[in-house]
Amino acid sequence: MNAKIVVLPGDGIGPEVTEQAVRVLQVVARKEGHSFAFSERLMGGCSIDAHGVALTDEVLADCKASSAVLLGAVGGPKWDDPTAKVRPEQGLLGLRKGLGVFANLRPVRVHPALVDSSPIKADRLAGVDILVIRELTGGLYFGQPKGRDTRNGAERAFDTLEYSDFEVRRVVELAFRLAKGRKKKVTSVDKANVLESSRLWRQIATAIGKANPDVALDHMLVDTASMRLVTSPATMDVVVTENMFGDILTDEASVLAGSMGMLPSASIGATGPGLYEPIHGSAPDIAGKGIANPVGTILSAAMLLRHSLGLEAEAASVERAVDQAITDGCRTGDLGGKLGTKAMADEIVKRLEAGR
């Protein structure tokens, strides 16, 4: 396998955790005889500082021409002015749109050795293995019109929540395809009692459910889903939902695993390179201290191997090395341990090197 991987370290702790994920990918390449060519580019706040925009046309072109893109995190207090016309998040949204990645896959699995790290009671966490599929290119984040104006002497801000049928159909169909390799259960999350866009979503999900009778489908309002995630998460398997709901629910789900630093994600489309990133943010309060948890980014690299490069065995070997390190008591500070970013990655690499 010859692959070109664009690395976007981004801001805050992004450079620290992506460095360790690249190390892991290099070990995989060396062990299995692959050739991975890495190229590092600017995106986010660092790109605003250097180029005045969060994502340049040149960087987007490089990403489109790659086999996959590995991202750290974007944003931070330096660029957090709500009145600013250029913001780091614009780079992330532009990258997703430019790559045509319409589905964000966020697995949430509770490692048995980390049950005590979660604020949720241990009996609620047994058997938790959820795949949240978030629609990524529609909804409030992209709908038009949006902006601010003055009406009757009052300042007004507005956003538009819109979905077309094909946007809903492709992500729900993906959820059903992936569910067939799991427990064959899909939970479609919406707000159909209030939102017209959710009524379209539910209509399409229902039709796809009838076309796939071997997969159980249930509909759940987003407020109910937010409660179910913490009261009985083991009852969920594949959860599919729209952009903003998925953004919020997956951050909530991170507490099940004990830390946001544990969770990876993959953003994929029908064709072209995928985008891989941990779900945590740039964590500017700990940036530069060498204490960030690299596991979410390393597991994102495993998803890169699986979904963009088709290297299932290699992806599984990385995941096993992570599991073994955690089982053996390796912990960063967010999980009550004392290992720094590099030391935690060292433990994972050690087990990856020794694995078969």
Automatic annotation (TrEMBL):
Record carries keyword Cytoplasm = yes
Name the positions where Mg(2+) binds: D223, D247, D251
Which top EC class applies here?
Answer: oxidoreductase
List, for all copies, the residue spans of the domain called Isopropylmalate dehydrogenase-like.
Answer: 4-348
Extract the InterPro entries matched here: IsoCit/isopropylmalate_DH_CS, IsoPropMal-DH-like_dom, Isopropylmalate_DH
Pathway(s) of this molecule: Amino-acid biosynthesis; L-leucine biosynthesis; L-leucine from 3-methyl-2-oxobutanoate: step 3/4
Q: What is its EC number?
A: 1.1.1.85
Q: State where substrate binds.
A: R96, R106, R134, D223
- Catalysed reaction equations from the record: (2R,3S)-3-isopropylmalate + NAD(+) = 4-methyl-2-oxopentanoate + CO2 + NADH
Which keywords does this chain's UniProt record carry? Amino-acid biosynthesis, Branched-chain amino acid biosynthesis, Cytoplasm, Leucine biosynthesis, Magnesium, Manganese, Metal-binding, NAD, Oxidoreductase
* Co-factor: note: Binds 1 Mg(2+) or Mn(2+) ion per subunit.
Per UniProt, subcellular location reads as: Cytoplasm
Q: Where does the record place the site Important for catalysis?
A: Y141, K191
Where NAD(+) binds, per the record, is at 76-89, 281-293
Q: What does this protein do?
A: Catalyzes the oxidation of 3-carboxy-2-hydroxy-4-methylpentanoate (3-isopropylmalate) to 3-carboxy-4-methyl-2-oxopentanoate. The product decarboxylates to 4-methyl-2 oxopentanoate.
The family assignment reads:
Belongs to the isocitrate and isopropylmalate dehydrogenases family. LeuB type 1 subfamily.
| Description of how the protein assembles with itself and partners | Homodimer.
The identity of this protein, by name, is 3-isopropylmalate dehydrogenase
